[in-house]
Design goal:
The protein is mainly α. It has helices spanning about 1-30, 40-60, 60-65, 75-105, 115-140, 145-165, 170-175, 180-205.
């Protein structure tokens, strides 16, 4: 499984370097347009790298090759989920850094809810992958494309809802732990998604 993670890390790095440029672009926009917030998109973009790695595997026929390797299908699924969780963690740190830089540049102080925002972003990214990955493991990237495009639209709507829900009144009502609660729910959903993906992938025929 370690070899699978190394393979995926090379693939992700090759395709993901441009995301750091996009993050810098989002930072510049946020500095000059305080009312525009692109930070929640970063998590979705990083989560899509997992889908990208699955798409490349599918085009190259790697899934068939993996069947003759000394790795189980459970390990193949676990490697993809580990990759996704690492990408979510990286994107959460990036969002927190960008938020802190923008807030300090504009108001010369660091935001009080920076951790809450980071947890919310991570939760949204986890929810997106939790919805998409079981479908992709069962039907493949090409056949599942419509599904995860729908999930992207759903995520955009949900992000809008969450951004409204993160008002000061709600934050005070939840004791400042709304982001942590949402993240906890997302972790549970990701765990369920992982189990479902293993079950579906074991049934898939190549």
């Amino acid at each position: 499984m370690k070899g699978i993670l190394i393979k995926d890390s090379y693939v992700v790095w090759g395709y993901g370097k441009s995301l750091f440029v996009i993050c810098g672009f989002f930072l510049l926009i946020s500095l000059f347009s305080p009312d525009v917030d692109f930070t929640y998109l970063i998590g979705a973009l990083f989560s899509m790298l997992t889908v990208t790695s699955l798409s490349i595997d599918e085009r190259c026929g790697w899934e068939k090759y993996a069947n003759v390797l000394p790795v189980s299908r459970k390990q193949v699924v676990l490697a993809k989920y580990l990759l996704n969780w690492i990408l979510v963690a990286v994107s959460s740190v990036l969002v927190s850094v960008i938020t802190a830089v923008v807030e300090y540049a504009q108001y010369h102080s660091f935001p009080e809810n920076i951790l809450e925002n980071g947890f919310c972003m991570a939760a949204l990214a986890l929810l997106y992958s939790a919805l998409c990955l079981p479908i992709i493991f069962r039907y493949g990237v090409e056949k599942g494309r419509l599904f995860y495009m729908f999930f992207m639209a759903f995520l955009a709507f949900f992000m809008s809802f969450v951004s409204r829900f993160l008002s000061e009144d709600v934050s005070m009502l939840s004791g400042g732990f709304f982001g942590v609660i949402l993240f906890g729910i997302a972790v549970v959903c990701s765990g369920i998604s992982f189990g479902l993906s293993i079950w579906l992938y074991k049934k898939k025929e190549f």
